[in-house]
Amino acid sequence: MHIEIINGPNLNLLGTREPSIYGNQSFETYFKELQALYTPISLGYYQSNVEGELINHLQAMIGKADGIILNAGGYTHTSVALGDCVAAIGIPVIEVHISNIYAREEFRKINLIAKNSKGLISGLGLKGYSLAIEYFLSEAHA
Q1: Which pLDDT belongs to residue 106?
Q2: Catalytic residue numbers?
Q3: What is the CATH number of the domain that holds 26?
């Protein structure tokens, strides 16, 4: 089983970006912890600040990934194209947000990706990524 984690804009700054909201751990460090915890499966990680690169990577996962964990960052609220891509690729996508986007600014309550996602985890910090992995594992054994 291969699960691909795809993070969007500004998530490369985790650990230093607004630690009161996003915590003080870098995603690279957390990803190494996930790899150590989930050794029976293949985990991939990709991050880009560029919308088109995120779309290209999502499309490149066709036939390669069994599931995708997507944190589109600010593009969640603005990108029709990313939402369309999630609908088009035919791979189950769990959307993850570190903060609770529905408890923040009004514009963050607009989500253009959720309707095409299998599910959404929001507000549970980095733990949301491991919960998404657990979901994919449970579905594989169902």
Answers
A1: 80
A2: 22, 97
A3: 3.40.50.9100
